[in-house]
């Protein structure tokens, strides 16, 4: 069981071994992280993070009502298709320029655009977008192979009464706060706020 970063670590260590080099000795093992993560549920910082997420998801949690060709089935079905596209160099440069101008990351800008697009499609002003994170904040976790990924549920409110730049700044603020509270597990949040899943 591993994440995408682990694949890179494995290839790098394999190449070092192939070249006759020894990979660096690890300070900790995945089992140390696992034990720490299991114990941290009792720690003050996780309780504070839990309070943050419970506040973010207090009240009614929105269900994205996309205008689809067919009604949502009673039993979840993963049938569908994908649309692949690339953004050309000129548009990429324009996006990066706007991100720099607004002092946001490219991720925050694209998240804002995506959320605004979902809002427009659905006519909803309370949108939740899930995003995976590497969850390797401590330097000792960088060279470890294992599954560290967590999901952040980013909840934003693209109200039609504000300009896009105002919304972008709100997304920036909410995204920074979410990343500051990334150690609280998504599964624990779901168990707390939506014990009956659909």
Order of helices and strands: HHHHHEEHH
Strand content: 5-15%
- The geometry reads as globular
Structure summary, number of beta strands: 2
Uncertain segments are: none
- For the biggest β-sheet, the strand order reads 1-2
Largest sheet: 2 strands, antiparallel
Main structural class:
mainly alpha
Average per-residue pLDDT, rounded, comes to: 90
Helical percent range? Answer: 40-55%
- Computed Rg: 20 Å
N- and C-termini, Cα separation: 27 Å
Number of helices: 7
Walkthrough of the structure:
The protein has helices at 4-18, 30-40, 44-56, 89-102, 106-122, 164-180, 186-193, and strands spanning 127-133, 150-156. Strands 1-2 form a two-stranded antiparallel ribbon. The two termini are 27 Å apart. The chain has seven helices and two strands. The relative contact order is 0.17. The model has no long low-confidence stretch (mean pLDDT 90). The chain is mainly alpha-helical and 198 residues long. Helix 4 packs across helix 5 and helix 5 packs across helix 6.
